[in-house]
Amino acid sequence: MESYITRIRSIEKITHDVLRIQLERPAGYTFIPGQATEVAINKDGWREERRPFTFTSLPQEDYLEFTIKTYPAHHGVTNELLALRKDDELILHEVWGAISYKGEGVFIAGGAGITPFLSIFRYLHAENKIGNNRLIFANKTSADIIQKEELEKMLGNNFINILSDENFGTYAHGLITEQFLNKNIPEPKGKFYVCGPPAMMDAIQQILTKIGVSEESVVVEL
Ligand SMILES: Cc1cc2nc3c(=O)[nH]c(=O)nc-3n(C[C@H](O)[C@H](O)[C@H](O)COP(=O)(O)OP(=O)(O)OC[C@H]3O[C@@H](n4cnc5c(N)ncnc54)[C@H](O)[C@@H]3O)c2cc1C
Question: Whole-structure pTM over 0.85, yes or no?
Fold first, then answer.
């Protein structure tokens, strides 16, 4: 299988535990907003440790970007990424992923599950096609919200936050429930895009089934 060694152009923290990494883009390497690849670090002991990450840049840009939540306690790849600097190298693999834009709807993201949607919203914004798409973004605290200002700017009133562990301003507090979704989804219902930790995915899919959303209307990573 083909792999591509590429150099880091910039690496910085954008929240207390999330990195934004921009990379040189290998010639001919392309993707659709929402897609991902497996990434490894080009360093002894780490080349075979591949982890999936989603592109958050736009396909037409001359660089690639990842937005990566780090887990130092796992002593895995994301912890190792914290030590990387400009000009260090990553190894990318083939592009894959089932999430892509299939029409207006409600995007439901938990934590780092925002990444495929970030790419899609950036694409729609650049094309002036953001329309009435709506984002429900669930996080533990306000400090965990990835790209908050940018999402506010792109989505305006269609950016709805819910925090499980903090009372913050006008944001909802708690977990996403059937009642919360019923209150926050417009009629007629369009597509539903869901991405987050497995437990959240299960819970949301159960609620969507209960409120009569058909399987074909739900876009998730398989
Ligand atoms: C299609 C897809 C796209 C993704 N895109 C993104 C993205 O764009 N951004 C993003 O941030 N994430 C994304 N993820 C999630 C991301 O792949 C994982 O967060 C990443 O693989 C974690 O790698 P890691 O090596 O740091 O930790 P892990 O691989 O989770 O852990 C390494 C080792 O640590 C141990 N470990 C596991 N869990 C724990 C624990 N709770 N406590 C202590 N030790 C533990 C285990 O021994 C494990 O083998 C995506 C996932 C998928 C499937």
Answer: yes
